[in-house]
Amino acid sequence: MFSRDRWSEIIEALTSNWFRTVLTAFGVMWGIFILVILLAAGKGLENGVKQGFGGMATNSMFMWTQTVSKPYKGMPKGRRYSFEIEDVDAIKRQVPELMIVSPRNQLGGFRGTNNVVRGLNTGAYNVYGDYPEIIQQEPMDITSGRFINYSDIEQKRKVAIIGDGVRSELYDKGEEVLGTYIKINGVNFMVIGTYKKKGNNGDAEEMQKQIFVPFTSFSQAFNRGNKVGWMALTARDGSSITNVKNDIMDVVKSRHSIHPDDDRAVGHFDLFKEYSKVNGLFIALKAVAYFVGVLVLLSGIIGISNIMLIVVKERTNEIGVRRALGATPWSIRGQILMESVFLTIISGMAGIILATGVIWLVNFQLSQMDTSEMMFLNPSVNLGVVLIALSILIISGILAGLIPAQQAIKIKPVDALRTE
């Protein structure tokens, strides 16, 4: 099967009419090129959108209090309630599937009044009272100094970590930040670190204008007592926050005498559910890419099949002589199939190489740009996609040559020798 004579025949047959062979191969090359480019573009879009999550722990949800909508145990509807720090311990104890439960308090905001002062500079920023675990749920790059630790929590230190946006507005360029003081609602906090977050959504700039302080010092400085504004909860690996959401709600409702069927009393945002929707969208896009790519490839395969039928017709005398000399039907069929598969693979590999070159050029251009806020990042295809493409090529080559091969073995030696 892999004899030199047979491969010489294949090369000779395909090169006897270069122009026709190139035009035929172009259809397959273009189909594979479109397939790979569509998959790479989809991956680039997926990378860009996921970058917008800023590396957040996606198996998370955020929970806050709302107005009670149903009377329960003698208490009226419409009442307000607050989370307490004891709720955090209860949730951790009763819902073992959770990995992190972070209580948070929040003050101010960029749409509010100025709440932070340093010297003559003022600004309106979101100030968060947090525990150290929040950096696992809402990752950030610490550009200088450090983040909150448990010594800060236990000793109620008045320390703060500020974003690069806060730094640029309250400090002069090149000015030392660590060890300086800022005044938050009249209370002095010492800056011990700066951070930068990644994101490509509309609030990317505002994400750099946040301030983090220890939860305990926040509660003490701003008279929050044991109250908790809201919580960030992350499930363990292997568990879905969506699946344990009802258990969390049950704990909160039980502790605050809320009717078990009152779904409005506890507000929440399920990040994992939204992230799953995004993943579903990209799975659909990948399916569309395969569908379109295969359809384009199919047109190329039909072209190869037609050309192989013409080749068989042109080689009728040759096939007749070979049959007269004792060539078996399988030998004739194998020859035609090998020519078809060889042409398909060569043209398909050319399409893969061309697509790889285009992807490399796009990535090279992106590497020269700031992609931190772009919705398109690192378009690529993995080895699995290449293997799938090769499998498609081999199967396509066999299908393209099957009909011509069957046509060839139907030729009778006597009739073939009589053909002019």
From TrEMBL:
It is a multi-pass membrane protein. InterPro entries: ABC3_permease_C, MacB_PCD, Macrolide_Exporter_MacB. It holds the Pfam family MacB_PCD. It is found in: Cell membrane. Residues 291-412 form the ABC3 transporter permease C-terminal domain. Residues 21-248 form the MacB-like periplasmic core domain. Keywords: Cell membrane, Membrane, Transmembrane, Transmembrane helix. GO terms for molecular function: transmembrane transporter activity. The chain crosses the membrane at residues 21-41, 287-312, 341-362, 382-403. Belongs to the ABC-4 integral membrane protein family. This is ABC transporter permease. It comes from Christiangramia oceanisediminis.
